[in-house]
Amino acid sequence: MKESETLELKKSTSELKEGIISIAAILNKHQKGELYFGVKPNGQVIGQLVVEKTIRDISKSISDHIEPKIFPKINEVILDGKKCVQIEFSGKNVPYYAQGRAYIRVGDEDKQLSAKEIERIIIEKNKDVIAWDKEICKEAKISDINTQKLKWFLKKTGKDFDTVENSLKKLNLLSQGKLFNTAVILFAKNPEKFFPNAKLRCAVFGETTAVTIDMQEYVGDLFTLIEKAEKYILENIHTGMKVEGLYRVDVPEIDKEAFREAIINAFCHRDYYLYDSINIAIFKDRVEIRSPGLLYGGLTIEKIKTEEVSERRNELLAEMFHQIHFVEKWGRGIGLILSREPDTNFKEIGRQFITTFKRKEVNGGVNEGVNEGVNEGVNLLLESIQKNPGKRIPQLAKTVGIPAKTIERWIKQLKEERKIEFRGSPKKGGYWEVIKN
Q1: pTM assigned to the model
Q2: Mean pLDDT of the chain
Q3: Are 220 and 298 in contact (CB under 8 A)?
Q4: Vertex 349: Cα angle to 288 and 202 (nearest 5)
Q5: Whether residue 232 is found in the same domain as residue 358
Q6: Which domain holds residue 149?
Q7: Burial letters for 411-426: b for 16+ Cβ neighbours within 10 Å, e otherwise?
Q8: 28 lies in a domain?
């Protein structure tokens, strides 16, 4: 005999306490195994005193100190002509605890499990039972579905629309005529009526959260919230421009594809059992995308950065996103983010998974590449004000094709440089005009 991940050897019942720990560790790893008393760890049979009380004491100790309870087979056996005790055990109700602690078998050793490892085992055991996205939304009805949103989705997937009910059946979003949570949070007219955490909170801060410059809250289906999140970031970070051929191209200081991928990941993989919303926090030096729920299925930050693997908390929801090419099945999203923004940081704090993008600001100004685009945009705005006097910010934003928030920042810059001034009364409809030197 030789000790392994499913076999433990003990010299005698004087090591009963350690033996019980080994039983729990093996059950947590393989759900079945054997233990022998009367055999050294190297396989040498030395025998064990076995009387009626021996078997009874072993049985009682296992019953008293392993939770959930198991019912092993305990036999007296003869090995090399010597009496030994053989225990055969099995159980699938993981995690098992020995003397109040959980262990797992690694080779021929028993390692104590951390709280996160215990959580992973519980989630893995119950993943089909507790999957939020596959639960029935008892209060929702077919009439709650937004037909136009469903038609839009089907068109992007190349499927035809029939009726709302038949279309949802094609997407496997119904069970016996009842809507899955996924159907409601993607296609309902008012998902927040059923899920108060179907929400997006966005804020612009100073250097810390002590100074709040702007704060917005949005509700709606996930496609709407993803769009709102992307728009909010674009409106509150620096955007420059570059010329490609005959066209001007916007150049945000943070790559748009990178932060869009992080937004989609946040909504796709978050823990919807947690009440919190997706939160976007924009600081002077960084943008944070905060998602409720830690990494799932045993993944670590190191693994998601170095290996193209994914473990999906919400399989059905991820499948819907995959059908319209929002997410990849091969877990390449993190690789895409890092390829476009190599300084992106991922961390877990409390029950939050946070993706942090560094803003390209140095000493109050954007970096050279973006700065060039910003200057080009400011000059374009100045030219537009000169050619079209009398226009206010909303009209200028439409003319230049730049978000109003960005126009506001550029106007402030031009005003400080004494290149433009405001004419008339703000209350009665004034406008910006170029100062003639």
Answers
A1: 0.60
A2: 86
A3: no
A4: 30
A5: yes
A6: 133-193
A7: bebbeeeebbeeeeee
A8: yes
